[in-house]
């Protein structure tokens, strides 16, 4: 997700690296939070649909020559669900 101001310059077929630098990227949980964060921080934020889906973004990060990834998952990413349904801190 790019900040809205940068998306105004994007056209289908354009590479996002022509619009904004991707030397550091934030990876967050959820598309909605990523949209808000990208606009607030004015930097690229990738939203994944859950902690286990980070592998899907690795090829894009390599393609964009990203040097630094900031992981900003929800607090429940550090919880482990036990068989009885309880969650404990990992």
From TrEMBL:
Domain of life according to the entry: Bacteria
Protein name as annotated: DUF3854 domain-containing protein
């Amino acid at each position: 997700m790019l900040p809205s101001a940068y998306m105004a310059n994007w056209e289908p077929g354009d590479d996002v690296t022509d619009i904004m630098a991707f030397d550091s990227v934030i990876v967050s949980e959820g598309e909605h939070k990523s949209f808000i964060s990208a606009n607030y921080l004015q930097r690229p934020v990738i939203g994944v649909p859950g902690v286990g889906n980070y592998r899907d973004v690795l090829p894009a990060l390599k393609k964009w020559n990203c040097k630094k990834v900031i992981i900003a998952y929800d607090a429940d990413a550090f919880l482990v669900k036990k068989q009885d349904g309880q969650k404990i801190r990992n």
